[in-house]
Amino acid sequence: MLTMEFPGCRELVDAIDQAVGMDSTFAVTDTLRNNLCKLMRGGTVKLPECVFETAHGRYARRELYRSEQHGYCVVAMTWGPGQGTPIHDHCGMWCVEGVWSGALEVVQYERLADEDGHCRFQPVGSIQAGPGSAGSLIPPHEYHTIRNPSDEAIAVSLHIYSGNMTRCAIFQPLPDHGYERCERQLGLDPVH
């Protein structure tokens, strides 16, 4: 289901369709990451102007495409200066994330054994990702934060999820250095 037409959308969808036909999650995400990098750097895909508009007080999520045949969805996210996420997961879905413009800081976490009903995490890697770069998250290694480190510039990223991502778990810090798991429903901003 095409949510919005934009130049190069057919090339993007064809590249994703080709990748999701691979025989393992690793092969899918690896192929998809490489295809996405080529498309972002090649200049044939032009995202709709609305994805460069920020939302007040939070990052924006705009669905560009959802495949009824393969189940995946493509979401553009717009990050105002300093905007980011708490530690969160993708509810067991794989995801390939690419930086379209600006820069993002992504910190990955390993979930440690819970203590007294509270989650514990250890950071295991941090990257500063610039335009044309992409990474993937494959459960159970899906815990991460994303943040626009700029004080002035906006950032736009493209996220391809294995399914329709309508919720996730976020982890709120507690005074004892643990985290409380909370369910979050995810909304979408309008595409125009």
Overview of this protein structure:
The two termini are 16 Å apart. The longest helix has 18 residues, at 25-42. The protein is globular. Helix 1 (9-20) packs antiparallel against helix 2 (25-42). The chain has a single domain, classed as Jelly Rolls (Sandwich). It is an alpha+beta fold. The protein has two helices and eleven strands, in the order ααβββββββββββ. The protein has a five-stranded antiparallel beta sheet, covered by helices on one side.
* Order of adjacent strands in the largest pleated sheet: 1-2-9-4-7
What does the average pLDDT come to? 94
CATH topology name, in short, is Jelly Rolls
Beta-strand content bin: 35-45%
Question: What is the CA-atom radius of gyration, in angstroms?
Answer: 16 Å
Q: Tally the helices.
A: 2
Q: SSE string, helix = H, strand = E?
A: HHEEEEEEEEEEE
Q: How many domains make up the coordinates?
A: 1
Structural class estimated from helices and strands? alpha+beta
Q: Any idea what the shape is?
A: globular
Can you tell me the CATH architecture?
A: Sandwich
The CATH class name reads Mainly Beta
- The poorly predicted ranges are none
Helical content band: 10-25%
Largest sheet: 5 strands, antiparallel
Look at the structure and name the CATH superfamily.
Jelly Rolls
Distance separating the two termini:
16 Å
Question: What is the number of beta strands?
Answer: 11
Short description:
This protein is an alpha+beta fold and 192 residues long.
Write the topology of this structure.
Blueprint: H1 9-20, H2 25-42, E1 60-66, E2 73-79, E3 87-88, E4 95-101, E5 104-115, E6 118-129, E7 134-137, E8 144-147, E9 155-161, E10 167-173, E11 179-185
Antiparallel strand pairs: 1-2, 2-9, 3-10, 4-7, 4-9, 5-6, 5-8, 10-11
Helix pairs in contact: 1-2
